[in-house]
């Protein structure tokens, strides 16, 4: 993504009915296709493509992957399904946020035939074959179209962005609270739901597997509270967005080794969980709370 490796994960579940969890961006789709081919999954072999939510770093490649793998069913929460069939509004919104950086960061989400899309409700299941399932659990807070996915055979839980952004180089964990959907209560409820599912591992879309489930989920909730508390202080003090971002960034800096590490790692961390996006999302939520 955006020229970085090790920044956005797609996970292949091999079995009777191979399943790809997350596609990454449109610009990454050829890399994903070639990686699947190297693992023995050809154009007609992939049974399912499922995304945790429709943000472009997770689902931007859906249309391309659907074209590369014409037998695959595309699975998404019902609140995101129409945007995969007709990405016009989603891409217009992304253009407003990212401007000229959109093409470099994400590329263009191509439409997927509506007949190939299966929309999930708040719970659902994807058949992986031989009695194995990938169960979907609605987990908004980060986004209203977000689901977590747990593998019945392994206990692996695909957490999308609902547990934040994990950086394996430094072990940092930072929340992802972008506008317009962030809501603290539902975000904390989603983390509690993940804990109740008793997964064996957490598979972060950004980036990689984590074995220490309980500690990591506790930290996810703590990070959310820290960022919300600091943003509330800035909001109460009447700060505008720029000053609020500067204050929160300064007061959280020591929490993250990445920001004291190699400049490229720090830049990668900011791209995935930028302070401006996080603070803007929390301020948007605070505004709704105060209506």
UniProtKB/TrEMBL annotation:
Coiled coil, from the record: none
Transferase keyword on record: no
Cross-referenced SUPFAM superfamilies: Metallo-hydrolase/oxidoreductase
InterPro entries registered for this protein in UniProt: Metallo-B-lactamas, NDM-1-like, RibonucZ/Hydroxyglut_hydro, ST1585_MBL-fold
TM regions (residue ranges): none
Keywords assigned by UniProt, alphabetized: Hydrolase
Ranges for domain Metallo-beta-lactamase: 7-206
Pfam families associated with the record: Lactamase_B
A GO MF label: hydrolase activity
Keyword Hydrolase in record: yes
Name of the protein in its database record: MBL fold metallo-hydrolase
Upper classification of the organism: Bacteria, Bacillati, Actinomycetota, Actinomycetes, Streptosporangiales
